[in-house]
Amino acid sequence: MVFLIWVWMAHSSVHKDRGELRIHENLVELGTDLAEYIAELSEASVKERGVFAIAISGGSLIGLMGKLCEAPYHKTVDWAKWYIFWADERVVGKTHADSNYKLAKDGLLSKVPVVPSHVNSINDSVSAEEAADDYEFHIRQLVKTRTINVSDNSDCPKFDLVLLGMGPDGHVASLFPNHPMLDEKSEWVTFITDSPKPPPERITFTLPVINSASNVAVVVTGESKAEAVHLAIDDVGPDYLSLPGRLVQPTKGKLVWFLDKPAASKLDGPQFSE
Length: 274
Ligand SMILES: O=C1O[C@H](COP(=O)(O)O)[C@@H](O)[C@H](O)[C@H]1O
What we know:
Strand 1 (about 10-15) and strand 2 form a beta hairpin. The strands form three sheets. Strands 1-2-12-11-8-3-4 form a seven-stranded mixed beta sheet. By secondary structure, it is of the alpha/beta class. The chain contains nine helices and twelve strands.
């Protein structure tokens, strides 16, 4: 029998197997907490390693990170020490509306003093397969120099923080339900040419890379994702063990879920009954 332990700390609770849950009244509160969380991890990582290697996703996450461009973070965060990567990217041009790079550049990176050479975007002029290989090669070079840390128990990169969103179908990064790429164990970055969500061609970190990170945060908002949140977090039995959101289980790192109330509305537990 699996015992669930819920310990309330204001808006935050700890789930024995699924990390910390931070449930927010509204998106403003969530954005404020998310910015503070990222700023704290950045500070700790720069203090410990001299750099902060952060992998971001696309989608609604970027808008929710907007507070980082405002006071005090635009001045207090040591932006020059940030090395930015993408946990997943659509294989389209960098100026294309579907590009996760463009989304982050327009919404965040152009508004803070990051070093352009520290922004590690994909090669958008090759096939999805080549782009994934290129990106993995590039990450391998930065692991050698320890710009990206290395996992203690595998040769995987250990990002200081991986930020993920989750779709209503439970996908994270570009890891979609029932796709063979969920079983990928040897590659760090893989590709997909038949994504169920457009655009079809994408590259993505594999689960071993995501789960080797020091910190993983999954940021999920809106009622349309409440069922996926329930299936990814609650004790729902063997049928949902392979839901991508559920497969996010850092080996040694810390997992935090940032949810708004609608996204958390189907979670088990008396505190969610209102
Ligand atoms: O296609 C993607 O979807 C997920 C979720 O996006 P959201 O808008 O529902 O938050 C995103 O995390 C991923 O990076 C993106 O490529």
